[in-house]
Amino acid sequence: MIVLIVGISGCTEKKATNGTWGEKPAANSSSLQVINSTGNYYDYNGTNYYYVSGYIQNNAESDASNVKIVTTAYDSSGNVFAVNDTAYLKPQTIPATGQSRFYAGFEDPDNNIVRYDVEVSITQ
Known InterPro entries for this protein (predicted)? Predict the structure, then answer.
């Protein structure tokens, strides 16, 4: 009877590549998505800063750690104005099917930044 119950329950079926039962696939760069990002100017003690903020969505069924965010700012001619690869991310490990808030800043005293790109990946 016990053998029949175990066989029907699926406990003998291997779903993961390493043979561990019930293991969820690891999050990867393609499972991360930038959502609701915005860029705004902010004056702090007489210096203008451009801040980019938003959320990173983890669409995987497992947590995403070692997330790297690279924000690139451009001027009106399409030239790279600055690159920030030290964005703040909270929480740093994005929960499965959850979100983390991020922001990155650039010193821009002459208001040269007109657009930005955000790239997100998982480093090993």
Answer: FxLYD_dom (IPR047676)
Number of H helices, E strands in the chain: 1, 7
Query: In this structure, are residues 107 and 42 in contact, taking their beta carbons and an 8 Å threshold?
Result: no
The total of other beta-carbon atoms located within 10 Å of residue 116's CB is 20
Q: Cβ of 49: how many Cβ atoms within 10 Å?
A: 15
Domains for the chain: give ranges and CATH numbers.
Answer: 29-122 (2.60.40.1470)
Q: Residue 30 gets which letter from DSSP?
A: G
Q: Which one, of 70, 64, 73, 99, lies nearest residue 87 by Cα?
A: 70
- pTM comes to 0.77
